[in-house]
Specification:
244 residues, Serine Threonine Protein Phosphatase 5, Tetratricopeptide repeat, single chain, mainly alpha
Amino acid sequence: MRKLQVLLFVFLASTKLFGIPNCNIYKEDEDCYLACKEAEKAIQHSQGSKASQEHFLKSIELCPEFAYSYFSPSIPYAKRGQMNIWIDLINKAVELDPETYLGGRGWYHWFFMHNYEKAIADIDKLDSLVDYDIGPTGDGYYHLNIMKGLCYKGLKDFDKAIELIEDCIASEDYYQGAYDNLHLGVLYLEVNQLEKALTEFKIQMELNDVSEAYFYSARVYQKMGDSGKALDYQILHLKSMIKE
């Protein structure tokens, strides 16, 4: 059941961030309705293709307030490393619809640019604007608060990272992410809480059996001075990598 929940989490995240709005909500505004229809045409073409970008440009010309048509064409620029173009487009999307796109911009700051401070600022800003759960990253692998913890991990503030991830996992609205327990275990390893690290790696193996959980378990046992167990997990790590 928990594995199914992870997959559902990924699907809902992708739908929320990347899914085009329902054009019918713009029926009272002809230009924005037509802009939405142009965006629908855009996503029928390959992402970042000339045809797709032209439809998005026409969408913006019809309705300059249609935020999706700034956000969606920004994605291929980020994937190509053209972050100077990406930032202009994503900033406009956030300006027009911060509740929808702040989390996406924060995720891109973290994932593509490793700009942890800006990612944290976007998550905090989103949290201040809404009175509901801020939800997952665009790829659905992490809750935004888990990602915030990983930003602090990137800044080497391991205690803050652990606090945020523990709080997120303990929260009422928590959805199991694909790698949450792996990251928490690595953080426990960083601060030498070895038993806690092993517990998290075992949970990770049960929920989403990734080879890294065996690799880091081997490191824990090495730190504990148990070379036999360390070797066992190194072998399991190799076997797991072959399966992947």
